[in-house]
Specification:
The structure holds 2 protein chains of 2 kinds.
Chain A (H helix, E strand, L loop, with lengths): L38 E13 L5 E14 L3 E5 L6 H9 L6 E6 L2 E2 L9 E4 L11 H11 L4 H15 L14 H12 L6 E5 L7 H16 L3 E6 L2 H7 L2 E6 L2 E7 H4 L15 H13 L13 H15 L8
Parallel strand pairs in A: 3-8, 3-9, 6-7, 7-8
Antiparallel strand pairs in A: 1-2, 1-4, 4-5, 9-10
Helix pairs in contact in A: 2-3, 3-4
Chain B lengths: L10 H7 L2 H28 L1 H22 L2 H17 L4 H16 L7 H34 L2 H6 L5 H35 L5 E4 L5 E4 L8 E4 L4 E4 L8 E7 L2 E6 L9 E5 L1 E5 L5 E2 L12 E4 L5 E6 L11 E5 L2 E4 L10 E7 L5 E3 L2 E4 L5 E5 L2 E6 L2 E6 H5 L5 E7 L4 E5 L4 E7 L2 H27 L4 H17 L1 H7 L8 H9 L13 H24 L3 H4 L2 H5 L6 H27 L6
Antiparallel strand pairs in B: 1-2, 2-3, 3-4, 4-5, 5-6, 7-22, 8-9, 8-11, 10-21, 11-20, 12-17, 12-22, 13-21, 14-16, 14-20, 15-18, 18-19
The chains are: A alpha/beta, B alpha+beta.
The complex binds adenosine-5'-triphosphate and magnesium ion (MG).
Chain lengths: 326, 594
């Protein structure tokens, strides 16, 4: 697909600074305190217990979650299967009612309908009407926003181009492949040019190229000033696109912070260099030895996101409860 | 056709005489309160009594503050269109195919030799359409929202700025639309079926030596006698509810007879009804007699006495009766003296002015016990203050459109029975096609009510359960009138528990329930009373479908008066509002992702 979002008013403030900082070991303050008007999503002690028909407790899916998602950032919810990611998203959208605590979107209660004017939501699976074709689908959702016909037609055209479904635009959705369904689902979520995009596992079902394009699109939307809340267990995705993440495990918040600082291990220094002679390398080894350090590795680093994630999950399983310092 | 007196009231009479407006408002308020209550219970279980109350208050606040004012026609239309498309893709148009097969078979077994084949044909198509359409409405409406929740397509709907009112209204509109399309097609097919099924042609079979009197051949299991006038034109006698014109023309010296198409079998007579009072043997206004029938539809007057039935008419307009006052009556005779059952019972009919000072001469008639017509000429002889006088009908007897008709029974020991609708003035005729159309509008209203109920139930029940609940409401609506008989002292056999006990102990319904234990019997009766009261309360919340049916009007060739249709429209509107409110509350307080 060709994800060409017109970069109209790129917000320079929101532009992400280049990640993978070279030779950096200073722990800069991870997040600047946001003014309250900047907060797009806020949860306060948000909890959810699923009950059965008789009101008996089945699952404690979410336990007292406190997060803030600020304007213009990509916030990732990370966690193993069944950790409460989708539950959090549904609570934020008002598809579920909290058992305890509250969730606010744009300063409004999550159950408020009016907040939906500014939200786009891509569900876990694309729950769309299978008997409609791509054009009818987008037209239908456009009508739900009370958009005038000319605007609907224009948006539909634009979005079909954007997600690359030009050739399948008149085919019923029931004939679509998984990836095509995902694309039309995304187009549907963008029909109203939302300020907040909520994406539940945006890359599942997409091939590597599609997945890359999806991530580029997410970044580009963020650059246009949109706020994005996404969840995923594709660590690479989260690492690539998210500014901040929250790691959930068994409904509890385990870790919260900027991706770059979370991935930074404070007392480990990474050195990446090219064009060094063997002599120069020896010299560096000597310098490290002179300062009482031990050289750990001097080649390509591994995906530390995976390490961080596995580490947290393992620790959480060994010692249940809230991780100190998060 | 059985009409209760209140059924031919005009709309304003109905609204203001029986307090139906108040009743309807009370019903909507009660049902809305009931909706609030159920939601409160749900919220209480979920959040505890205090929080629950707070959240339900918020729901009410939201409804009037934002959700109703912000409800958008464009969104309702979008959802309606979707529901319409969904129904089409679910192949509901197959119903039309089923109907076609149905009427093709019916063409074989509908008996053309019946007394009134038109009635048979019309009743058949209307009843078949009615049931088919109500079933269609039931299936469409009960399953759709549950299917949305099951497929989770509702996630992408409720995360858009869509209000619960719009989801409910959109569904109702969408399904009503598809129902209307199907109904329109069935209506057209039915019309063609009736008209073509009843159409037939005769030839002249024999003609008398005078060349005037003749008999047609047998077609459609009947033949007609006819008599031509000097011009060679004539009308046959009435058989199977219709007549034909016959014309004789001379072509090349030979007489050729031509018999026209059937006339009069597809009619829409416009009746003017009056209100009925009875007087007893001494002429004192009373209740009318009951001759011991189970049904009290007709009341009886005693023969050979002053006992009479008096109809008071209010809308007798001269312009409606250019050729005399045509009276249609359907009087029943009850014989206590059965020596001679061949001779008909005799009755008399008198027209009287509303101030009771002027009356016509008696018109004697023999009780036909089926539809009988009498035409009273516009000039007639009668009495003013008991003095004989020549009268003009619309000058002397009708005052401001008001007039009385009195019927007495001449034979002592015999009785005549009548209900208000058994005597009517025939004020001209309207188009049968138009009447047929109105019959379909009436079915349409029933369909909309069923759809409203189906959609309402489907906002909080799963598909099959919602369907059963709607079906139960329908059945309760059709047969609910029977429940009232339980509360009448005449009802034998008791309620459900007593009935079971009677079956187990093999006791008929007419003997005492003697279990040898007073407390036990009392307990059974109390439980039954409680149960039946519950059912009776529920019944008042569902529409009386038995009453909403109007197919008899069309089948009997009586114009379905607009007042009745307007009344049904109002009833449908009432249920529409009620179900929308309840549906809104359930959708609003429901967790879509749970
Ligand atoms: N409707 C439901 N009824 C009962 N339990 C539920 C329901 N939905 C989710 N759960 C439970 O709540 C917990 C959290 O589920 P959730 O869907 O939020 O997980 P997730 O983090 O999105 O997982 P995944 O990565 O597999 O999508 C799980 O234990 C799940 O079984
Ligand atoms: Mg999930």
């Amino acid at each position: 697909m060709t994800l060409e979002v017109p970069l109209t008013d790129a917000n320079p403030a929101a532009l992400k600074e280049t990640s993978n900082a070279v030779l950096s070991n200073n722990s800069d303050s991870s997040t600047a305190p946001a003014s309250s008007s900047d907060v797009v999503i806020e949860t306060r002690g948000l909890g959810k217990i699923y009950r059965d028909f008789w009101g008996r407790k089945k699952v404690h899916a979410l336990k007292s979650l406190d997060i803030e998602v600020r304007k213009g950032e990509i916030f990732g919810l990370l966690g193993p299967n069944g950790s409460g990611k989708s539950t959090t998203i549904k609570l934020v959208l008002g598809l579920l009612f909290p058992t305890s605590g509250r969730a606010f979107v744009f300063g409004k209660e999550a159950a408020e309908v009016t907040k939906n004017e500014r939200i786009g939501y891509l569900p876990e699976e694309s729950y769309l009407y299978k008997f409609l074709n791509a054009e009818e689908t987008l037209d239908f959702y456009g009508r739900l926003f009370d958009m005038p016909a000319s605007v609907r037609r224009e948006r539909t055209e634009q979005l079909i181009q954007m997600v690359g479904l030009q050739r399948a635009r008149r085919r019923q959705l029931k004939e679509y492949s998984k990836g095509m369904t995902r694309r039309i689902g995304l187009a549907q979520a963008l029909i109203n040019e939302p300020d907040l995009l909520v994406l539940d596992e945006p890359t599942t079902g997409l091939d590597p190229i599609g997945s890359r394009e999806m991530k580029d699109l997410i970044l580009r939307l963020r650059d246009q000033g949109k706020t994005i809340l996404m969840c995923s267990h594709q660590l690479a995705d989260v690492e690539d696109v998210c500014d901040r993440i929250a790691i959930l495990h068994q409904g509890e918040l385990k870790e919260l912070g900027r991706v770059d600082s979370l991935l930074k291990v404070q007392d480990v220094t990474e050195v990446h260099a090219t064009g060094l002679s063997d002599a120069a390398k020896d010299e560096i080894r000597a310098v490290i030895a002179k300062h009482g350090g031990t050289l750990l590795q001097l080649d390509n680093p591994t995906t530390t996101m995976e390490d961080l994630f596995l580490d947290i999950v393992r620790e959480s399983e060994a010692r249940p409860g809230r991780r100190s310092g998060s | 056709m059985r009409l209760e007196p209140n059924q031919f009231w005009s709309l304003s009479e109905w609204l203001f005489r029986e307090g139906s407006l108040l009743y309807g408002a009370a019903l909507v308020i009660t049902m809305a309160a009931f909706g609030f209550f159920v939601c409160y219970v749900v919220a209480m279980v979920r959040q505890g009594p205090g929080e629950g109350f707070f959240s339900i208050a918020k729901v009410i606040y939201d409804l009037f503050r934002t959700d109703l004012p912000k409800t958008s026609l464009s969104r309702i239309w979008a959802i309606a269109k979707l529901a319409f498309l969904e129904a089409i893709r679910r192949k509901v148009l197959a119903v039309i195919g089923i109907f076609i097969v149905g009427i093709l078979f019916a063409g074989w077994f509908l008996d053309k030799s019946a007394d009134d084949p038109a009635k048979l044909y019309i009743s058949f198509v209307l009843t078949a359409t009615n049931y088919l359409i109500l079933l269609l409405g039931l299936f469409l409406s009960a399953f759709s929202i549950p299917a949305d929740i099951k497929n989770r397509t509702i996630y992408t709907i409720v995360t858009k700025p869509v209000r619960p009112t719009e989801i409910v209204l959109g569904r109702v509109v969408g399904f009503s639309l598809i129902g209307s399309v199907v109904l329109a097609v069935l209506g057209l097919l039915s019309y063609v079926f009736v008209v073509r099924g009843l159409n037939h042609s005769h030839e002249v079979a024999t003609i008398g030596s005078d060349g005037r009197n003749g008999v047609t051949d047998v077609a459609g299991a009947h033949s007609h006698n006819f008599r031509l006038n000097e011009d060679g034109k004539g009308v046959t006698d009435e058989s199977k509810g219709h007549q034909h014109t016959v014309t004789a023309t001379k072509v090349n010296g030979e007489t050729v007879f031509k018999v026209g198409p059937p006339i009069g079998n597809l009619s829409a007579r416009v009746p003017v009804y009056g209100s009925l009072t009875y007087t007893d043997r001494n002429g004192v206004v009373g209740e009318g007699l009951n001759v011991g029938y189970m049904s009290e539809y007709r009341k009886f007057i005693a023969g050979g006495s002053l006992s009479s039935a008096i109809w008071n008419f209010e809308n007798v307009n001269e312009s409606d009766f250019p050729d005399g006052l045509e009276i249609e009556m359907n009087i029943e005779a009850f014989r206590t003296y059965k020596g001679d059952i061949v001779t008909p019972v005799r009755g008399t009919l008198i027209l009287r002015s509303p101030d009771e000072t002027v009356e016509s001469e008696r018109v004697s008639f023999l009780v036909k016990e089926s539809l009988d017509r009498k035409v009273i000429p516009l000039k007639l002889s009668g009495f003013r203050l008991n003095k004989p006088e020549k009268l003009e009908l619309f000058k002397d007897l009708v005052v401001d459109g008001r007039m009385q008709i009195i019927i007495r029974c001449e034979d002592s020991q015999q009785y005549l029975g009548m209900a208000a609708a058994d005597l009517a003035l025939r004020a001209g005729e309207k188009s049968f096609a138009w009447n047929f159309f109105k019959g379909y509008v009436s079915i349409w209203l029933q369909m909309v009510i069923v759809i409203c109920f189906g959609v309402m139930y489907s906002t909080f029940l799963s598909g099959p359960v919602a369907m059963v609940a709607t079906l139960a409401s329908l059945v309760l609506g059709f047969f609910g009138a029977n429940i009232d008989t339980f509360f009448n002292s005449q009802y034998n056999g008791g309620g459900p528990v007593e009935a079971v006990v009677r079956i187990l102990t093999q006791k008929g319904t007419m003997i005492d329930l003697d279990l040898g234990n007073q407390t036990l019997e009392q307990t059974i009766r109390t439980i039954d009373y409680g149960l039946m009261s519950g059912v009776s309360t529920l019944k008042s919340a569902v529409p009386d479908f038995g009453r909403l049916g109007t197919s008899d009007f069309i089948a009997y060739g009586v114009d379905l008066f607009d007042g009745l249709l307007a009344r049904h429209l109002l009833i449908a509107l009432g249920y529409f509002i009620m179900t929308t409110i309840i549906g809104y509350f359930f959708l609003k307080t429901r967790e879509m992702a749970a």
